[in-house]
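note to self: dont lose this again. the chain is below, predicted strucutre after it. 1183 aa total, dont forget to put it in the shared folder this time
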Amino acid sequence: MPSKAIMKCSSSSSSQVTRTYDVFVSFRGEDTRNNFTDFLFEALRRKGFHAFKDDADLKKGESIAPELQQAIEGSRIFIVVFSKNYASSTWCLRELAHICYLVEAPGTHILPIFYDVDPSDVRKQSGYFEKPFVELEERFREDNERMDEVQRWREALTQVANLSGWDIRNKPQYAGIEEIVQRVTDILGHKFSSLPNDNLVGMEFRVEELAKLLYSESSNDVRVFGITGMDGIGKTTLVRALYEGISHQYDFTCYIDDVNQIYGDSSTLGVQKQLLSHSLNEKCEEICNVSQGTYLIWKRLQRKKALIVLDNVDKVEQLKIFTGNRDTMLRDCLGRGSIIIIISRDEQILRIHGVDEVHQVQPLENKEAVQLFCRHAFKANVIMNGYEKMANEVLWHAQGHPFAIEILGSSLFGLSVSQWRSALAMLRENKSKKIMDLLRISFEALDYTNKQIFLDISCFLHGYEVEHVVEILNFRGFYPEYGLQVLINKSLLIVEDGRIKMHRLLMDLGQSIVREVSPKEPRNWSRVWSYKDLQKILSNNKPAENLESVVCEFALFKTTLSADGFSNMRHLKLLKLNYVEFSGSLDYLPSELGYLCWHGYPFKSLPPRFLPYKLVSLSLANSKIKQLWEDTKPLHNLKRLDLSSSEDLIKVPDLGEAINLEWLSLKSCTKIREIHPSIGLLRKLSYVTLEGCKSLIKLPHFEETQNLEILDLERCIKLEKIHPSIGFIRKLKFLNLKNCENLTMLPHFREDLNLEILNLEGCRKLGQINPSIHHLKKLTVLNLKGCKRLVSLPNSILCLNSLSYLNLSACSNLSYIQLLEKPRDEGHSKRPCVGEASLRSSIMKRWFKSPLHLFNSRTHKDSFSHLLPSPNFSCIRELDLSFCALLQIPDVIGNLHSLERLNLSGNSFCKLPNLKELSKLYRLVLRHCRQLKYLPELPSQTYLPSVIYERPWPTTESPAWANAPQKPLLHVTNSGLEVLNCPELVEIERERCTRMTVSWMIQILQAQRRIDPLSIPMNPLFSSVIPGSEIPRLFNHLEYSTLTRIDESPFGHDYEAAVFCVIFEARFKKGIVSSICPPKAKGKFNDSKISMVFDSDLAIAEYVSDYLWISFLIKEEFIHYQDAPLYDEIVDLVGNDHYDIDVKKCGYRLIYDLDLELSNLAMMLGGNSPALKNDLSAIEDNK
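---
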């Protein structure tokens, strides 16, 4: 018999019991049917509980026993009604015995009711219960099996009678029923009936979630809930569905449909009459003033358990329905367990009124949106063939908005493909009036200033970072700190990941409102956001007096515009253009401009008469400009100047007037030789990048720039030294000198410098590090990779107590380094120590000149003690000893308890020490270990780091207009095991390699659940390449093809990850000696692709023909693609110019939470070998 643990195993197990009923009632029909039990069943029904009743649910002519058994096993609560003749029915006794057998299962309960019988008689089988058992024992005294059954019946009666229940002898029929139903409610929670309308797509889950919110706290309190969301999102539909499902549980129910209209027609008195008419079940005309209404409402609703819904509340005063200052009177007069729901598009109204909780109604999920659209557009549940692309366009634009989906779907029903194309082309230009009219209600309720904010965001500020939106709107005079919150409260925009986001339909609304001023003449608009409209304005050479903003991203068509037309835009405040060709010359720009962003600016200078005294941000990246202007300009408001990649720029202008300049980018201005000295006088300057200024030979004196935090001088290849004043900029946090190939020395650093990152990678002529580096007490990153002339590090490096990353790779002449030989002081005991250096092969070869005696303590005791001093080197996180010709790896590596990544490729050892105790190790690479015969024991537990991404570089893009991702400082590697081209590996070790890889993958999958999913990079968290030609048993979906196709979308399922396995062969193409490009695995989600790269060198593949690639993606990664209309191929291995990839077999499995239980892992992995038991033991320890 299988164990209970295995019986409960997988979520897909067919043996799991389906709970068909909430309650099973065991009773003797002739005693209680048509009286007590009828009252009980009705009370349970009113509360929404599904109770089994034999004469209602059993079909005539069928055997009762199997039906009863199935009903009992499918119930969660058992109510046993003991009556005078209960024991006379063997059916009742069999039911009871089976109930007692099942009640040990979790989540089941027995509630006994003693109806006109003494509990003691039931317990002892005396009184009414004595005679039936005497007769039974007399009848079956010759049948031992039946006598055993009778004994079980006795035990069942005793067991149940000993439970706490209800004794209702000599009491009214309805006695105790309310308490019994309340007890059922306490156990199962509140229920609601099925939805009133089966056509409400996606509503059932939302109603359940809202019901959980309503009943999440004690039902004894009167609670007030607010429901909010944008117009048409389904607020009323959701609450109406919930109301109809739970209203039977309340003594008084009232749904007031349109409070705003009622209040507008007859003020507070009208709302009172609505409440009273519901309480009287008739029209209430007799009240003539609010005071009388207040009294009557108090009198009629006092202490009643009520469900009241107030829909479409538009103002706070509409909730003041009582005389005096008595806003909470309705809450105060209602009985325990009452609920008041207020629906409003304005969250601020709900907050002011003092609701207990606010629920924001969200758009439909993609699957639900498709279903709803298909019902209206095709009268079916799927998209018709030939319409897929157009349907997806509509769904993308509707963005889950149910009202819009219904309207658009209905308008397209019955049309041919060509008619659809025509209709969609029209809708792109002229939005649906029904949708726009609905959404416009919220817009019209805004005051003038907030309307302007709404229009700015809908036309061009959608997707920008909040701080930059606030800055631009402040310049526009729109008070954004208040206005943005108003729009958020009214569900007109949201803040997501620090950016302002607006629904596409609301963007349509805003753009339609701007256009409606003059549909055919964009020169009369206040805002322009498309090149097509801009072309009209510039070509007709007429004044554009109302135009304040021109923000056009990328042109969808190639066009040439006339520059002369800008002379007609006298009031232009915002101008953003990208890579557009212009004819003529630019002689005029308005002095009202505050933001000028013109990427690919095609002219050699700005207009001479341009007076930029209001300019806040000037961005001319990738321009043809040679010189901004000749004389000084009034730049008192300028905060940002971006001239990056302006390769013709030869001179930086005098910026002495730019006293508020904070941000300066001259990145890749390759002809600049010197920087104007005025830059060193700008006290508010905090960011300067001169990256890629290849001709720069001299830096200015930074004597006044004491607020400078970031200085990026990467690839300034002619720079031989940096000005000493840089070492005295107290607030400097980041200094990037990467690939300054001619840099020979560093400045002296002052004592109180705040420098955190110093990047000297590729400074090939740098011969020494200034000893004053010990003053950098806050330095966390020191990158010296590729400093080939660096001979030694100063002892002062020992004082860098905050250092967490030290890269010395490719420092080929470095011959002396001393790491800490004693523990740090108590204040830094939890910080990573200097021993966290990434020690690469070049420096290892320099230190260990004799690989044969590498770990001989007598011969090389100094070198090894400096490399692995105890206890400090135990903090190392990454160790790369690849291609060091090592014959042996010391056992001490097994004691590096902080080690996360270990690369031992290209060495000549035959075995490795035990790695079982390295609980933080998640990456082990063993490529080209030609003598390796035996694999090490892998960690018994695995803990992934809480943050996978390392510290990023600061952004080098203009913050006001460009939002490029940051580039990482350190390489991010996948977890997993790689064993490639190890020809001596014995066959049994190859089999163990597969088993260990799968076991380690499960451990890492368990470990990843303990960390923040947002910190995980968008590539496989686990990626292993090992020799093998069989798909492990774990992968239960197999395909003999070049890709793995998921049978159904995992969206909405409670899975943890999708694990994949691919068997492939890498074959070299003729004439190719080696390959430098690794194969890639691509995951495809319709038109969206992610690349999953296993960084493996397959250049020498003569030893093993087949490889296994094993990987998994966690569910959070799938969520990024849930907007894709369909779910398609997930894995596709491809080759490149150097070799072919031949995929032989693929497999996958969706891993659920229950799958990670030990008993279920045993079943999935298969077998009972001692090695497997050891792997399972390790997995269990890891949980």
